[in-house]
Backbone:
């Protein structure tokens, strides 16, 4: 079964979770044998932008040593086993230069979505 | 899984936060009534939906004591779904994401709730006729 997860809520609880939880569960399901790709839209199109970093956060006397690294999540996910798409219009709406993305990510336009979605047995919109 | 069609639902919202949860439970209720086998994978805050220690409260604004208020509790709704599925002779599995349970201290769930992993979600979805994700906005 071929499966597409659409991630549209970017940076949802990433400080608390240390991950984007949809990218994380996609990775975990792939490790369990799923054939799974990702489509990034909305604020999540920023995930493949190179050079982003979240500094550790401290509340009171409790430092959190690691910051979430969603960019590394995407670079760790994309590859021969899975594709990652980003919605071109959502990148342009946010003024994100396409050259700033890691090259493994495929850009796709809204008018190409029907063809893409039809290529999957299941599409889950998170 | 018993014969017949099977649906899998993924819920994400914590209780008492979103109308999406009640809507999803309505769809699940209708699915069971129509003879579908149903799987639910509770992810993130949704693992608290079947939390055993949810308690009803009185409501002074309504002028009702705790009994009169009969405040809704998601754990009771889920227990109702579990009982109805058994009565209908269909399979019903409510699986809480284990890591989500641990980070929330939500391990004390009502009877009938199972603990699982994303691999369990994948197996359930693969064996289902369809899957609906009801995400947190």
Residues:
């Amino acid at each position: 079964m071929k499966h597409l997860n659409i991630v549209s809520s970017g940076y949802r609880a990433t400080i608390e979770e240390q991950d984007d939880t949809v990218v994380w569960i996609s990775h975990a399901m792939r490790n369990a044998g799923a054939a799974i790709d990702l489509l990034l839209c909305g604020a999540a199109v920023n995930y493949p932008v190179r050079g982003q970093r979240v500094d550790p956060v401290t509340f009171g006397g409790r430092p959190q040593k690691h910051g979430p690294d969603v960019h590394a999540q995407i670079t760790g996910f994309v590859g021969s086993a899975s594709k990652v798409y980003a919605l071109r219009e959502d990148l342009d709406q946010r003024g994100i230069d396409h050259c700033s993305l890691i090259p493994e990510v495929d850009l796709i336009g809204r008018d190409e979505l029907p063809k893409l979605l039809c290529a999957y047995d299941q599409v889950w919109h998170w | 899984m018993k014969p017949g069609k099977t649906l899998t639902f993924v819920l994400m919202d914590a209780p008492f936060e979103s109308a999406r949860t009640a809507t999803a439970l309505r769809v699940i209720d209708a699915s069971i009534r129509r003879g579908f086998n149903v799987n639910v994978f509770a992810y993130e805050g949704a693992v608290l939906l079947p939390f055993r220690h949810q308690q009803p409260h009185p409501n002074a604004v309504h002028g009702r004591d705790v009994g009169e208020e009969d405040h809704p509790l998601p754990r009771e709704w889920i227990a109702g779904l579990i009982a109805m599925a058994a009565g209908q002779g269909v399979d019903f599995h409510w699986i809480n994401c284990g890591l989500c349970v641990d980070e929330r201290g939500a391990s004390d769930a009502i009877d009938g709730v199972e603990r699982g992993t994303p691999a369990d979600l994948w197996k359930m979805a693969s064996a289902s006729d369809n899957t609906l994700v009801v995400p947190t906005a």
User: Anything to note?
Assistant: The mean pLDDT of chain B is 95. Chain B touches chain A at residues 10, 12, 43-44, 117-119, 121-123, 125-126, 130-131, 133, 135-137 (CB under 8 Å). Chain B is about 35% helix and 20% strand. Residues 19-33 of chain B form the longest helix (15 residues).
